[in-house]
Automatic annotation (TrEMBL), chain A:
Cleaved signal peptide residues: none
SUPFAM superfamilies per UniProt: NAD(P)-binding Rossmann-fold domains
GO molecular function, one term: oxidoreductase activity, acting on the CH-OH group of donors, NAD or NADP as acceptor
Keywords, comma-separated and alphabetical: Oxidoreductase
Entry protein name: Short-chain dehydrogenase
From TrEMBL, chain B:
Presence of keyword Transport: no
PANTHER family for this protein: 7-ALPHA-HYDROXYSTEROID DEHYDROGENASE, 7ALPHA-HYDROXYSTEROID DEHYDROGENASE
Protein's organism: Thalassospira tepidiphila
Family note: Belongs to the short-chain dehydrogenases/reductases (SDR) family.
UniProt keyword terms in alphabetical order: NADP, Oxidoreductase
Name recorded for this polypeptide: NAD(P)-dependent dehydrogenase (Short-subunit alcohol dehydrogenase family)
Domain of life: Bacteria
Length: 271, 275
C-alpha cells in the first residue's frame, strides 16, 4: 500500500506554498518523495518556507518561485521556470488565496464591502486558480502522462457560515468573520474543479477539491469555543490533519478518483 | 404539439397552472400533521382528495372537516402500506372513486416509532424501513398503472434527516429522539424519487420529494419547550416549521406550475441544511 502513496519521481507545484496550510502541504509532498515547486507572491516568502522545509526534510528537492497568480505573464514565466528545472509537472495544488493587505477591509460588513477589494480577492482565489490550471494543465496534457490537480476550497464554499460565532471572535487581534467574497470564490473553485474533471478526464488528469474546515492558526479562545461547538468532533482542525487527504489526492492512491470534494471538517457538513 | 415558446396572449396564468380542478389525488398518511396540510392544499387548489392511512376512522373525521372547507367528493380509505394486498385493494377502491386513473400520489406515511441506536431492536428497524421506505415503493408500484394514463405526479415526503444527520446534543430523552432507521429510510426515499424521475419520465410521470425541516407535533412543543428552543437555535431562520409552510412547495410540485420539475428534493427547512 505504501507505494501507492509514493511520489518519488513526481514534481508537485504548490501555489500559496508559503502560507499557513501551503507550507505543510509542500513538506508532506517532499517527505513522500516529490520534487516540489513552492510558489508564493514574493520570493522572500517562498525562500523562507523552503528553508523551513529543508530543516525538516533534509535533502528535499524543493525550489522557491515567486508568482502573482492573478497575472498571466507572471504565471507563464513561473511555470516555464518550473518545467526548466524539473522537466515535468505531475501534481498541482491550487492553494493560493488572499486575505488582502488590509484585514479590516477584508472583514468589512457586506453592505459596505469594497468592490475593488472583492475583485482583488477574486483575482487571486479564482482567476489565479484558472490561470495556473490553464498553464500547468496544458503542460500536463503535453506531457501525456496524466496528472493530479487539487484545488483548496473550504467548507464555506459548500455551507453558509453561522454568523453568531463571530461575536467577540478575533484573529491576530482583528475582529473576524467569513466575508462573502471568500465563500463565493471558494464555491467557484468547486465549479471549476468539476468542470475540469470531465474536461481533462480523457487526458487522465484528475481534478479534485480539498475543503478544510476551520484550522487553528491564532484565533482567540472565544472563536475557538464557538466554532468547536458546531463541530461533531468538538474541535477545530490542525493543519497536519489535512496532510493525509493531500497525499491521497496527489498520489496514485487516488488513481480512480476525480471530480470529488473531500471535506476534512470534523463532521460539520454531516448535520 | 405545444408551440416552443408561449405567446404571452395565450399563455396560461399562474393561477391556472396551479389549478387542480378535475384532478384526483391520493394522499397516503393524508390525515397526519403534514399529510393533512397537503390534503388541504390539494383540495383548495380544486382536486378531489382521497385520504388514506392505517386509521380509517381518523381519515373519515378528517375528510369530513376537509369537505366542509373545500367542496368536492373527497373520500377516506383505509390502508396498511406494509401489506401488498391492502395497497392493491386501496388502488382498486381509489380507481372506483376516480372512475379509473389518478393524477396525484403523495406519500407521507411513517411508522411513528421512537428509539435510539442503543435501544432500537431489529423489529423497530424493520418496521421503520417497512413503512417509510418499502411502503413508498409498494404504493408507487401499485399506483403507477393508474398514474400513467393521466401523466400523473408523485410527491414523496422525505426529511432533512434523509440528507443530514441529527445533532445528538438536541435530544434529552428517547421520547424525542430521531431513530437511526428514520434517516436511512428517508435517504432511500430521496434516491428512489430520483430513480423513478428517470425511469417514469417516458410515461410522463414526474417524481419529486420535499424534505421538511423541524415540524414538531404540538404535543412535543407543549411537553418539551427546551427541545423546541434547541431546534430554533439550530436553524438559520430561528424558528420551527408550522404545517402551512409546506403548502407552497406541495402546490408547486403537484400542479402544472411545476410541469418541468422532476427528480428534485425541495428542502422546506428554514435553512437547516445550509450551514
Amino acid at each position: 500500500m505504501h507505494k501507492h502513496f509514493d511520489l518519488t519521481g513526481k514534481t508537485a507545484l504548490v501555489t500559496g506554498g508559503g502560507g499557513i496550510l501551503g507550507k505543510g502541504f509542500c513538506k508532506v509532498l517532499a517527505e513522500y518523495g516529490a520534487s516540489v515547486v513552492l510558489v508564493d507572491i514574493t520570493i522572500e516568502r517562498a525562500k523562507k518556507a523552503c528553508e523551513d522545509i529543508l530543516q525538516n526534510v533534509p535533502g528535499a528537492q524543493i525550489m522557491p518561485l515567486a508568482c502573482d497568480v492573478a497575472d498571466k505573464d507572471s504565471v507563464t514565466s513561473m511555470v516555464n521556470s518550473a518545467v526548466r528545472q524539473f522537466s515535468s509537472i505531475d501534481v498541482l495544488l491550487n492553494n493560493a488565496a488572499s486575505k488582502a493587505d488590509d484585514l479590516n477591509a477584508f472583514f468589512a460588513p457586506f453592505e459596505s464591502y469594497d468592490l475593488d477589494l472583492w475583485r482583488k480577492v477574486m483575482s487571486i482565489n479564482i482567476d489565479g486558480a484558472f490561470l495556473v490550471a490553464q498553464a500547468v494543465g496544458g503542460q500536463m496534457v503535453k506531457q501525456g502522462n496524466g496528472g493530479s490537480i487539487i484545488n483548496t476550497s473550504s467548507i464555506y464554499g459548500v455551507l453558509a457560515p453561522d454568523q453568531r460565532i463571530y461575536e467577540g471572535s478575533e484573529y491576530m487581534g482583528v475582529a473576524i468573520n467569513t466575508p462573502a467574497v471568500y465563500s463565493a470564490s471558494k464555491a467557484a473553485l468547486i465549479g471549476l474543479s468539476n468542470y475540469l474533471a470531465t474536461y481533462w478526464a480523457e487526458a487522465n488528469i484528475r481534478v479534485n477539491v480539498l475543503s478544510p474546515g476551520g484550522v487553528e492558526s491564532g484565533q482567540n479562545e472565544t472563536f475557538k469555543k464557538k466554532y468547536s461547538a458546531r463541530i461533531p468532533l468538538g474541535r477545530m482542525g490542525r493543519d497536519d490533519e489535512l496532510h493525509g487527504a493531500i497525499l491521497f489526492l496527489a498520489s496514485d492512491a487516488s488513481s480512480y478518483f476525480t471530480g470529488q470534494n473531500v471535506m476534512v471538517d470534523g463532521g460539520l457538513s454531516v448535520w | 404539439m405545444q408551440t416552443p415558446y408561449s405567446n404571452p396572449k395565450e399563455a396560461r396564468s399562474l393561477n391556472d397552472l396551479l389549478s387542480l380542478k378535475g384532478r384526483d389525488a391520493l394522499v397516503i398518511g393524508g390525515a397526519g400533521l403534514l399529510g393533512g396540510e397537503i390534503s388541504y392544499t390539494l383540495a383548495e387548489l380544486g382536486a378531489r382528495v382521497i385520504v388514506a392511512s392505517r386509521d380509517k376512522g381518523k381519515c373519515q373525521t378528517f375528510v369530513k372537516q376537509l369537505s366542509e372547507r373545500f367542496k368536492g367528493d373527497h373520500q377516506a380509505l383505509g390502508v396498511d402500506i406494509t401489506d401488498r394486498n391492502s395497497i392493491r385493494k386501496l388502488c382498486e377502491e381509489a380507481s372506483k372513486v376516480t372512475e379509473g386513473g389518478l393524477d396525484i400520489l403523495v406519500n407521507t406515511g411513517w411508522s411513528g416509532r421512537k428509539n435510539t441506536f442503543e435501544s432500537i431492536s431489529d423489529e423497530d428497524w424493520d418496521l421503520d424501513i417497512e413503512v417509510c421506505l418499502n411502503g413508498v415503493f409498494r404504493t408507487i408500484k401499485s399506483a403507477v398503472p393508474l398514474l400513467s394514463p393521466r401523466n400523473g405526479v408523485i410527491l414523496n415526503i422525505a426529511s432533512m434527516y434523509g440528507h443530514v444527520a441529527p445533532d445528538y446534543r438536541m435530544y434529552d430523552s428517547e421520547r424525542f429522539a430521531n431513530p437511526p432507521s428514520y434517516g436511512a429510510a428517508k435517504a432511500g426515499v430521496i434516491q428512489l424519487s430520483k430513480y423513478l424521475a428517470s425511469f417514469l419520465a417516458p410515461q410522463g410521470i414526474r417524481v419529486n420529494c420535499i424534505s421538511p425541516g423541524p415540524f414538531p407535533f404540538e404535543s412535543t412543543q407543549l411537553e418539551n419547550p427546551d427541545f423546541i428552543e434547541r431546534l430554533k437555535a439550530k436553524n438559520p431562520m430561528g424558528r420551527i416549521g408550522i404545517p402551512i409552510d409546506i403548502k407552497g412547495a406541495a402546490g408547486l410540485l403537484c400542479s402544472d406550475a411545476g410541469a418541468y420539475i422532476t427528480g428534485q428534493n425541495i428542502c422546506v427547512d428554514g435553512g437547516w441544511a445550509v450551514w
